[in-house]
Design brief:
Elements (H helix, E strand, L loop, with lengths): L1 E4 L6 H9 L8 E4 L17 E4 L4 H10 L4 H5 L5 E5 L3 H21 L3 E3 H10 L16 H7 L2 H14 L3 E4 L4 E4 L3 H9 L3 H11 L8 H8 L5 H28 L1 H21 L8
Helix pairs in contact: 2-4, 4-11, 5-6, 8-10, 9-10, 9-11, 11-12
Length: about 280
């Protein structure tokens, strides 16, 4: 992860092309995200005088999309992004769709039997922040809600086909309501469809040391447990926690201490503004 400074340009299309021109031309996938691209409450869209960029190999990207090894790239792509360029790579296309399906499946396991589109999208958007220590200090606590509330239509476009085709859910787009199969059989199918790393984390959480049962046996047991959703949440948090610490250390190493302090101070200011936006509640007699 590094930063580049670019002159302010009114035409974002020109800006994106200028950014891409700084990189090799055989890019498999390029995308932009964040409040500079999509509107978020409390931020000004289009503020891109300083931007961050990251580079990842196609192989590692596909691995994270399919298996959620770190959820660093996969989590970014659970949310709407602006595609700047995509090569004709069938394996990558399949991995992008698989990642979205995994986000839906994991969210189903953590939600009640009936819920709204907004509740689903909030759950999905929050997956990559679960367990992230940076959400404790340095991020606006309403960040997830800000991402979703102003971009509901983008989330619908991203997920509507997956929801319509999913046999585990009754999707009523006109009402914005969903009902998911919460039977043990339904939850077992969902657990078996989760990314491999998450299944392994769940197994580690619930399997007593020395018992060494296979994953399918453990997930079958989990499907009948009322705390199934909580364990899935804990498994995701354990992945994100490890990744967020690693990425923060890499950020200091690549961007340098001064840039890191400068960026962190801006995050703290955003967090403070988020606190100030929250309405105060006065006790009533």
């Amino acid at each position: 992860m590094d930063k580049m400074t670019l002159p302010a340009l009114h035409n974002t299309g020109v800006l994106y092309r200028r950014i891409l021109s700084q990189f090799p031309q055989d890019i498999s996938l390029a995308f932009a995200y964040g409040s500079g691209v999509f509107k978020q409450q409390g931020t000004s869209q289009g503020q891109m005088e300083i931007i961050k960029y990251g580079v990842i190999s196609t192989e590692r990207l596909i691995d994270d999309l399919m298996h959620w090894k770190t959820m660093y790239a996969a989590g970014r792509l659970h949310k709407p992004v602006k595609l700047l360029g995509q090569a004709d790579n069938g394996k990558l296309r399949a991995a992008l769709v698989a990642n979205l399906k995994s986000a839906v499946t994991a969210s189903f396991l953590m939600l009640p039997e009936s819920f709204s589109e907004e509740e689903l999208f909030l759950q999905i958007a929050g997956l990559s922040y679960a367990g992230d220590f940076r959400m404790v200090i340095g991020e606006d606590k309403s960040k997830v809600a800000n991402i979703v509330n102003d971009n509901i239509e983008h989330f619908r476009i991203l997920y509507s086909n997956i929801l319509r085709d999913c046999p585990q859910v009754v999707y009523k787009p006109q009402q914005g309501k969903l009902e998911v199969d919460k039977s043990p059989e339904g939850q077992f199918i969902q657990l078996m469809a989760l990314p491999r790393t998450l299944q392994q984390r769940i197994t580690k959480l619930v399997d007593p040391p020395g018992k060494n049962r296979d994953v399918e046996e453990i997930l079958l047991q989990m499907a009948q447990d009322p705390d199934c959703g909580t364990v899935v949440q804990q498994g995701i948090s354990s992945i994100v926690k490890s990744s967020s610490i690693t990425q923060s250390i890499k950020g200091i190493a690549t961007a340098g201490m001064w840039k890191t302090v400068s960026y962190s101070s801006k995050k703290l200011r955003k967090m403070w503004k988020g606190w100030r936006r929250k309405p105060s509640v006065s006790p009533t007699s």
